Structure formats: C-alpha cells, structure tokens
Amino acid sequence: LKEKTEDLKRERRLAEDLLHQMLPKSVAKQLRKCQRVEAENYDQVTIFFSDIVGFTSIAASCTPLQVVEMLNNLYVCFDTRIESYDVYKVETIGDAYMVASGLPEKNGIKHADEIAKMSLDLVAAVRQVVIPHMPTGRLELRAGIHTGPCVAGVVGYKMPRYCLFGDTVNTASRMESTSLPQKIHISSATYEALLTDDAYEIELRGEIEVKGKGKMKTYWLLGNKNYSVQN
User: Fold this and answer.
1) Same domain? 78 vs 2
2) Which intervals hold domain Guanylate cyclase (predicted)?
3) Which of 47, 54, 152, 153 is the most buried (most CB within 10 A)?
4) H or E stretch including 47?
5) Which pLDDT band, with edges at 50, 70 and 90, does 17 fall under?
6) Which range of residues forms the domain containing residue 129?
7) Residues 23 and 57 placed together within one structural domain of the fold
8) What is the DSSP string of 161-208?
C-alpha cells in the first residue's frame, strides 16, 4: 500500500508539472478546484515577440516533418534559456515566440530588464540552432519589445489558454514585424524603462511608420554593458 501511495504521488507530481508547463501555477490551482479564473489587470509588463526571418521560404523548401523538427530544435533551445530569467512564455504560433515579464507574478520594475537580457540571449542563441535538413544554413531572428499595461486571463474550456489582451500586446507585435534580421527593436516606453540603471547599449532608430499606430520613435537594443549572453 505504501509503494502504491508513493507511485500515485509521483504520477500526480508529473501531471502537475506538465500542467504548470502549459498554465501558470496560480491559474492551474484555481482550475483544479473548479474555480472561475478572474482576468487580472497589470499596470506595467514587458512583452517580447520574435519570428524567424524567411520562415515561409524555408518551410516551402522542406517537408512538414522537417519543419516540425526544425521548430522543435529552436524552441527547445529557447525554452531552456528563458528559464534563467524572470519571464513567462505565453505561447508559440508557428515560428512566432511570445514571452512576457511582470505577469502572472508581478516583479516591480524588473520586467523590462529581464526581457531585455533574455532577448539578447535568444538572438545570440538562434545562430547556434542546427537545421537538420540545411546543415550549412543558419536561422535569423527578428525581435520586438514593448512595455505597458495589459489584461491577462484564461479563455476557453477545452484546452484553456492563458492569454494577454490590450494595446501593449499589439504594439509589441508591431515592434517585431517592423524589426530587422538579428535586431531587437524596442519602443520608447521600453527604452525609458531600461534607462533606470544605465546598463544597456541602445541606438536610436528614429521615427518610423507603424501600422495602426502612426509615427513612433523607436530604438535598437544592442547589448548590456554588465552582462554577457550565455555560452
């Protein structure tokens, strides 16, 4: 009986660990108790989006199984690295990767710094990812970051998802779509949030036309003076 009890506990831990990979612990706890998860408002978070440059062309030149293998290699690399930072992986859609900091657990004013360090790491890491069917090829990342308020909540009953809503999400996505290969494109709001400790190398990009937003003053995040990316 004791052995069976231990086996049951072990299986339960494995199931909980898997659940916590898909939903925040606080949300999973409420769902297990059949409680309604209320949407929560966050005054300040920082959101990161990235995608693979030329992904459509790459995907067109290989089989669906090769696409899956390539993306799996990429996301295993990214997922492993983001564990070093106070961030939450929201979702992946195709080749798009979305990460946030400052939610579901608030972290004061650390969110912009955590996402900035993580983004420098991922842009460096993507060059190390091997494409099995293109051994001489190398992937390139296009990244964008924005800081601002948002609302987070669980939507759906079948396969419930923890989703973020608000203009901050849209603007972060726009920063990514108007970025360039191997560049980290940041908004003025993120730039101002990163000025607090004067640790970052940032270059003014200037005013650009952003769909749905008009002209925006944006910047390139180049590096951190006190921090080197993981080997």
Assistant:
1) no
2) 46-176
3) 47
4) strand 40-52
5) low
6) 39-230
7) no
8) EEEEESHHHHHHHHHHHT--TTEEEEEHHHHHHHGGGT-EEEEEEEEE
Report the DSSP beta bridge partners of residue 214: 210
83: amino acid identity, one letter? E
Tokens standing for residue 55: 């992904």
Q: Do 137 and 117 lie in a common domain? A: yes
Give the chain's radius of gyration (CA, Å).
19
CA atoms of 24 and 162, how far apart (whole Å):
8
For residue 137, is pLDDT > 50?
Answer: yes
Confidence of residue 16 (pLDDT cuts 50, 70, 90): low
Say if residue 2 is in the same domain as residue 95: no
Question: Residue 43: how many CB atoms within 10 A of its CB?
Answer: 9
User: Higher pLDDT residue, 186 or 199?
Assistant: 186
Count of domains in the chain? 2
φ and ψ at residue 85, rounded to 5 degrees = -125, 160
Q: 31: pLDDT confidence band, cut at 50, 70 and 90?
A: low
Domain of residue 113, CATH code? 3.30.70.1230
Say which DSSP state 138 is in: -
**pTM of the predicted model as reported, rounded to 2 decimal places:** 0.85
d(CA 132, CA 69): 8
Q: How confident is the model at residue 18 (pLDDT cuts 50, 70, 90)?
A: low
Residues 98 and 133 in one domain: yes
